[in-house]
């Protein structure tokens, strides 16, 4: 079987994957040549498209011999057997990983820009390349995808060497290959046009698919760039309101982050899929962010959040919740404490619509609630504290802060997770916990604290 080019190969490969449509798969292209093929597959299956960026870890004195691979999100696959037989010491392993991690992050950033990596936890993932000769890169990619939490991994290619297909079939759930020629020498010989795919082409195809997905989201609800008026200060934000949204969650990011935080955006997308609106916005202006002290000025950040809440209240009447990360969690709790104090005293800020700062629920991810002292006892909104099990210092701070809360509250520890929840499946667990908490406490009819 001969293919005209990679687009033709993708169009012919897609029908062989139709049986996966009901599983709502994620399609990942191996950069660079696999992306044009994956683009056609994703378009035919109406599936989201992303790249799977992996870096092989090579033995220092024999780089072609791989002892493992790494991927985004902390995914790591190591062959202890090869490490032992090749005599690679711990320091060598660490040095190779550091170098390859830097290159991995550079490539991922170039291809994806500021878009977050697609979450794979529990999903069917289709890994696509333009062809397979030895299968080493494809195998590493599939192992990394599995480590990132994929429930089912399907490897799909237009053409491959017979021995590679046989070997890979034991490493993935399914291999879909249109042509397995016995006289296989190189992938390129099965294409009329096998010109090298450029970085620019990969970026363009990913951007095109992302734009298509954004248009579909707009059709399903309202997604817009906004300028939040926080007490006369104009702050950039992104407001998403799915059709029929029953509540909206405001995000307060931590120090050194912004509304473009891939972690917060990943959680926001999960909330959107659950029918909740989200507002991601910058608590500081670019000029203010240049001064490090401002990102730890919890009083100012909480005031901005309160002002932004009043701005949002003028646009919607649905319940409002806060999701705070790191120092942003302290700002969220401090703002909720002010709203709680106003509510308990019948303060003017809680009356009417335009002046309300009331908040229905708070979720803290890897937060610093200790920075909200001494106002923790004034928080009335149900509060969920989520901390990584390996983030021991922050976990202790959250336990101490929980003892001071007088509202309904819960502490959830995500086993094995560190402060940024970069481990496979950790951030997805955060999203699930937040989604359930907000759905319970913000949905009309749910119980409210007195």
In terms of topology, how is this protein built?
Blueprint: H1 6-13, E1 26-29, H2 34-45, E2 49-51, E3 54-59, E4 62-71, E5 76-78, H3 80-86, H4 90-112, E6 124-128, H5 136-147, E7 152-159, H6 162-168, E8 174-179, H7 199-220, E9 221-230, E10 233-242, E11 248-252, H8 262-273, E12 277-281, H9 286-289, H10 298-313, E13 320-325, H11 327-345, E14 361-365, E15 383-388, H12 392-402, E16 409-414, H13 426-442
Parallel strand pairs: 1-2, 1-6, 6-7, 7-8, 11-12, 11-13, 13-14, 14-15, 15-16
Antiparallel strand pairs: 3-4, 4-5, 9-10, 10-12
Helix pairs in contact: 1-2, 2-7, 8-13, 10-11
Main sheet makeup:
8 strands, mixed
Please provide the ordered H/E string of secondary-structure elements.
HEHEEEEHHEHEHEHEEEHEHHEHEEHEH
Shape: globular
Report the oligomer: single chain
- The radius of gyration is 24 Å
Strand coverage percent = 15-25%
Q: TL;DR?
A:
The chain is of the alpha/beta class and 450 residues long. The protein has helices spanning 6-13, 34-45, 80-86, 90-112, 136-147, 162-168, 199-220, 262-273, 286-289, 298-313, 327-345, 392-402, 426-442, and strands at residues 26-29, 49-51, 54-59, 62-71, 76-78, 124-128, 152-159, 174-179, 221-230, 233-242, 248-252, 277-281, 320-325, 361-365, 383-388, 409-414.
């Amino acid at each position: 079987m001969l293919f005209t080019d990679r687009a033709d190969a993708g169009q012919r490969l897609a029908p062989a994957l139709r049986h996966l449509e009901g599983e709502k798969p994620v399609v990942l292209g191996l950069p660079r040549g696999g992306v044009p093929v994956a683009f056609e597959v994703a378009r035919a299956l109406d599936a989201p498209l992303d790249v799977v960026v992996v870096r092989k870890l090579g033995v220092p004195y024999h780089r072609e011999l791989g002892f493992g691979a790494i991927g985004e999100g902390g995914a790591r696959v190591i062959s202890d057997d090869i490490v032992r037989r090749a005599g690679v010491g711990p320091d060598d392993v660490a040095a190779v990983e550091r170098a390859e991690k830097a290159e991995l992050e550079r490539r991922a950033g170039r291809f994806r820009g500021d878009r977050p990596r697609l979450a794979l936890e529990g999903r069917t993932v289709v890994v696509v390349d333009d062809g397979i000769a030895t299968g080493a890169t494809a195998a590493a990619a599939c192992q990394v995808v599995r480590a990132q939490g994929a429930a089912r991994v399907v490897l799909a290619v237009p053409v491959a060497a017979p021995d590679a297909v046989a070997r890979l079939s034991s490493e993935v759930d399914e291999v879909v290959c249109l042509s397995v020629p016995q006289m296989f020498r190189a992938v390129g010989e099965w294409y009329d046009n096998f010109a090298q795919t450029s970085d620019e082409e990969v970026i363009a195809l990913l951007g095109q698919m992302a734009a298509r997905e954004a248009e579909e989201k707009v059709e399903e609800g309202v997604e817009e760039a906004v300028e939040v008026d926080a007490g006369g200060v104009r702050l950039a934000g992104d407001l998403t309101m799915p059709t029929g949204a029953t509540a909206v969650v405001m995000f307060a990011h931590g120090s050194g982050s912004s509304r473009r935080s891939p972690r917060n955006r990943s959680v926001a997308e999960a909330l959107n899929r659950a029918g909740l609106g989200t507002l991601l916005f910058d608590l500081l202006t670019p000029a203010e962010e240049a001064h490090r002290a401002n990102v730890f000025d919890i009083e100012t950040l909480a005031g901005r959040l309160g002002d932004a809440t009043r701005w949002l209240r003028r646009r919607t009447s649905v319940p409002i919740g806060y999701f705070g990360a790191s120092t942003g969690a302290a700002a969220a709790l401090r703002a909720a404490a002010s709203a709680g104090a106003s509510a308990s005293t019948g303060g003017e800020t809680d009356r009417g619509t335009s002046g309300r700062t009331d908040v229905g629920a708070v979720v803290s991810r890897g937060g610093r609630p200790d920075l909200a002292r001494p106002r923790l006892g004034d928080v009335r909104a149900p509060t969920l504290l989520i901390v990584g099990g390996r983030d021991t210092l922050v976990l202790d701070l959250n336990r101490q802060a929980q003892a001071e809360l007088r509202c309904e509250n819960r502490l959830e520890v995500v086993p094995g997770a560190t402060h940024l929840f970069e481990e496979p499946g950790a951030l997805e667990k955060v999203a699930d916990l937040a989604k359930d908490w907000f759905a319970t406490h913000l949905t009309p009819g749910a119980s409210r604290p007195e």
